Amino acid sequence: MNDLLEGRRLLVIGGSSGIGEATARRAAQAGATVTIASRSRDKLEAALQRLPAGTAAAVLDVTDAEAVATFFVDQPHWDHVVLAGSSTQVGPVRTLPLAQARAGMQNKFWGAYHVGRSARIGAGGSLTLVSGVYAQRPNPAAVLQGAINAAVEGLMRGLALELAPEGVRVNAVSPSTTATPLWDRLGEAGRAARFAEMRERLPVGRIAEPDDIARAILFVATNPFATGSTVLVDGGDALA
Ligand SMILES: NC(=O)c1ccc[n+]([C@@H]2O[C@H](COP(=O)([O-])OP(=O)(O)OC[C@H]3O[C@@H](n4cnc5c(N)ncnc54)[C@H](OP(=O)(O)O)[C@@H]3O)[C@@H](O)[C@H]2O)c1
Hints:
This protein has helices at residues 18-29, 41-50, 65-73, 98-118, 143-162, 187-201, 210-222; strands at residues 9-13, 33-38, 56-59, 78-83, 121-130, 169-175, 230-233. The protein is of the alpha/beta class. NADP nicotinamide-adenine-dinucleotide phosphate binds at residues 13-14, 16-20, 38-40, 43, 60-63, 84-87, 107-108, 111, 130, 132, 175, 177-178, 180-182.
């Protein structure tokens, strides 16, 4: 258990599902006061039923720069902000419609930029972004995801310098295939095939559970010496 979270205010954007939800759960269990945020009120309400009592929720779309700015101005400073939310279309560069590719960048990169621009975090606090192993190990069927994740990591490193005078640390956690609803788009059979292929390839012999990634997120968020780091938690994916 992470005693550095006791009594801390933690915001998890993307906390209504997958990695974000696991982060919210683990933080709440460690005594943090947690707010989850995402676009869909229904998803947030459903997540609140699964999360510890006392977790709060807010509707927020990180692609809307003005809404992000307003959200943070209306709130007291946070101790830790985690951005684990995004949604991007996957496909080869040659065939993925340009509008969808641009929407992916808008969602994940510009969403992170908007949060970096407006988040009000107290001295000693942190901002943690979630990138992805394709930044290190490109996947020819998901080139865009690698480019977006590399951009997110570049943004993180620059923000770590920019926000240092305010006493705020900025890091990224980079997962490989993780068993979250993100993969539901493949259908049941497609998801099972993808997970089986990854289990076969990864040195650890399994794919990640959301809590594997949540542990890394809370580790960098609370480690007072961690800033500008990308923590790869990928089961050895980048090596395989
Ligand atoms: N799962 C993997 O295998 C994997 C691998 C590498 C990297 N990642 C990265 O890890 C992060 C979390 O993924 P996940 O697997 O946990 O996905 P997920 O289960 O699909 O959850 C995504 C979360 O993000 C929220 N969200 C999406 N767009 C948003 C927006 N514009 N503003 C605010 N919230 C938004 C969603 O809620 P709403 O729909 O309500 O907004 C949801 O809560 C993503 O950045 C993903 O790219 C995942």
